[in-house]
Prior knowledge:
four-stranded parallel β-sheet; 16% strand; alpha/beta; seven-stranded mixed β-sheet; Rossmann fold; 455 residues
Amino acid sequence: MADKAKRIFLTEDEMPKQWYNVRADMKIKPAPLIHPGTHEPLTVEQMSPIFCEELCKQELDNDTRYIDIPEEVLEFYKIFRPSPLIRAYQLEKELGTPAHIYYKFEGNNTSGSHKLNSAAAQVYYAKKQGLDSITTETGAGQWGTALAMASAFFHIPLTVYMVKCSYEQKPFRKSVIQSFGADIIPSPSDTTEVGRQILAKFPGTGGSLGCAISEAVEKATHTPNSRYVLGSVLNQVLLHQSIIGEEAYIQMEKAGEYPDIVIGCAGGGSNLGGIMSAFMRDKLTGKKDPEIIAVEPASCPSLTRGRFAYDFCDTGHVCPLGKMYTLGSEFMPSPSHAGGLRYHGMSPIVSQLYHDGYMRAVAVEQTKVFEAATLFARTETILPAPESSHAIRAAIDEALKCKETGEAKTILFNLTGTGYFDMTAYQAYHDGKMSDLIPTDEDLEKGFATIPNVE
Ligand SMILES: *Cc1c(COP(=O)(O)O)cnc(C)c1O
């Protein structure tokens, strides 16, 4: 075993120079974003007061298969990419599985996650458009940090609305974000109209991603020459994240393997979209047929228990509507420790592919996720983020199935990030104080009742 490579690297030259737009190969395209008032598909003109113009074009582009990564973005990528693909020999051994387990490690930058891939692109386009500032929301804090890093790199001021319960659980996130020069405000806050309304309706709420999005959009649209940027869900974000899968595809080839199973955790769907797209291309074009698995928390089960419908992307209903698997924009998930997976909806691309049977989804409970996380840390030496550990859980479960059947399947999962800011969660797990909060059907009905009736 000693002569087998654990880490499969790419050189800078081998790094993909284009993003892959999986929509181009989808037979049924994801439904377009629609205007919350008229329910008509949005145009670039209607979207551009909220989002950067080039990003609006990418959002609506269902046809261009490959889009060149701008030179400036490539230069930024090269600071932290290509990311390594690692064979988890030690984990395999510990499990006693014949499966080959590979993971793509996206946590090797200060944000501690894959989110920098899209932050770099979005901030570059904002700068190129000559904007004076940008705003965003952040859940667990990784996106806010990634965006603060990119904003510092491209010199553009940033305001971050951070979901309040995460802000309180992870006080040092604030210090990191401020170190990169951005402003950070816990959400809901009294700095926006929608924040004040939510505070009045749900006093003492720990907030949610949907609510923080509403505040960040309001701030951008009420500030001259400012725009809002979003870290997940949107088609453009999945496009930027495709770099993960494009790299992994080449690295798997270098390892002389092809994955039977590709796994990603699913919050808004961006890292899953990123790792799977290159393999989905093979599925959509009939070249290969890997199994693709989305892993979500049992506390926020949008794919496994949600409805496929047009819904608001945010709690305050200031954003366009997207057709997606959703729990309803007013669904307030219980305060689980995987802040980045607490979103009520799901990327329209992932939703459509799931709806059309190109992938399956599993929901996993928090305590089982942390059991997987600690096993992974002890064998592979990386302390994983709680979000990423959902994918680890599913990879371990698949590897254990292989142990039973004796099949040596090749499993690839995306290790989206590191968990150094999640020690409150790890401590709760060690102290036996972590519970599995699974919504009842009744809880879900309350959320479903907030889904608008749109054909
Ligand atoms: C944000 C985040 C996720 C979930 O977001 P997606 O858009 O579903 O990828 C997963 N893992 C980490 C580490 C994150 O920061």
